[in-house]
Amino acid sequence: MADADKPKDSPDEEKRETAPEEDTGQASTPRMANEPDDSDGDTVTTGDDTVDAGPSSDPLMPGPDGEVADPAPEDADETDPTSQEAQDEARADDDGMIAHDYGDHSAPPVEDGAAAQDTLTAGTENDATADTVVGSVHADDTVTDDRGEAAVAAGTGGPLVQEKIIERRGGFVPAVFGGILAAVGGFFLSQYLGPTGWPFSGAANFEEETRSALMETRDGMQALQGRVDGVETNLSDVDLSSVETAVADLTERTGTLAADIATLQSDVGEIGTGLNERVDALSSSVEGLQAGLATISEDAASFADRVSALEKAPMEDAVSPETVAAYEAELADLQSRMDEQSGAFDQTVADQRAAMEQAFADQQARMDEAFAQQQAQIEEQRAELQAMVDEANASEQEAARQAQIATLRAAVSDLDTAVRSGEPFQQALGPISDSEGMEVPEALSANAEDGVATQARLAESFPPAARDGLAAARADEPIEGEGANRFASFMARQLGARSVTPREGDSPDAILSRAEAALDNGDLGTALSELEALPDTAREAMSGWIDQARARADALSAVDALRQDLNIE
């Protein structure tokens, strides 16, 4: 405070002290009593402007003994108009700061006739190195200056320093505007702090849903890969060597049976040949017997002729009765022998025929029995072979069916992921539509090219759709209530306000609040069920959102039905 310690003896000294300020373009202004000073001058700082004062231009600056120096008469008459204008501008500052009036005192004129200009510098400039005078600021924007009190306490009898207090008061329009801003800010703050966490609730739900879908897809793919590996292992474990061995054994046994049949046919041929030879021999014997009988018959006939000739011959020589009896006895004996030989021949022929027929019958029976046994063995082996072939075919078909089911389950898993993520799923439907016995539901085929809306998208688009539906429902309802309730209903209708927390009741606002809560919890079916209770006008206003939500719900239900069918199989 070098300048404050020096007494002001004459106006000439003041002029000399203020002369250097001409170079900086700063005008001298009065300085408050008891105000600290330094070599660079004093600075009065406001919210936007800064008024720089000269180091010793205040005529009321007390000396070292605390007295206030009176201004020189000639200085009192000479007032710098530019300095006075700067003071007036400081008093009328736009920020409501206080400008002090020190009566008629002003800074002395500047040498060389140059008009000093007061500079209002911005609060952000850092080139001012003067000390800052800070007054006491109260809640009513009033600044109290103690300059006058310091001057009176000094007892010098100088003029009393007056201060002007400028109070800036707001009007009705700023208050209404501030209230609207506060209401809007409170609404957005309640949305942010609410259960939905707007505007980041959709992103969080989408991230959680996507992560959950990816985890389910990964688990499903791992399970399906394990099942496919198991099917391949089962296919590789199917032992067809026993079937091949049985087929080879059956082939060998069939060859052996064919050889046995050939041997049997050879034996039958040999037996037939032997029988034919025996029949031929028997025929020869019969022919020999017949020839002998013919010879005997001829001999008998010749003997009979001889007897007849003897009987017819004249009985020149009488034959004794003994001779006749001897001839008759011989003839009877010959006839008896002929009868015996004829009976023996007939018996021999009958015996031979019976023996041959019995032998042939026995051989035929043995052949039939052997052939029946061989035929039974062939049929048994054929049945065993067919059973083994059927079992192998069944195993192969079962393995193919299991592989197809695994492929379909993988396709259903991909389809579920695509439906939940909102992507087109035409490619994922390919294996299902190409499979025999599988029918693609209409809910999937109708939205396969474009996909369905995601849960996060539905949650994000629900508030505007709910506001449209609520506005349509309120348009058909009269404003009920009295007084404040009627005014609140009117304002809610005008502003489109609605409940964001679930509440009981059958009003459209309550229904929409419960539907939104169910949607935030991921229960799309419950949300659609709640919306069924809305009036027709509200549902028509929300028809776009309801159609998207129902398409997603139907698609997810169809995917679950396909998965259940595959699990049953």
UniProtKB/TrEMBL annotation:
Task: Quote the subcellular location field of this record.
Answer: Membrane
Name the InterPro entries for this protein: MIC60
In residue numbers, the region (Disordered) covers 1-91
Listed GO CC annotations? membrane
Give the record's keywords alphabetically.
Coiled coil, Membrane, Transmembrane, Transmembrane helix
Asked if the Swiss-Prot or TrEMBL record annotates the protein with the keyword Transmembrane, the reply is yes
Protein name from the UniProt record: Mitochondrial inner membrane protein
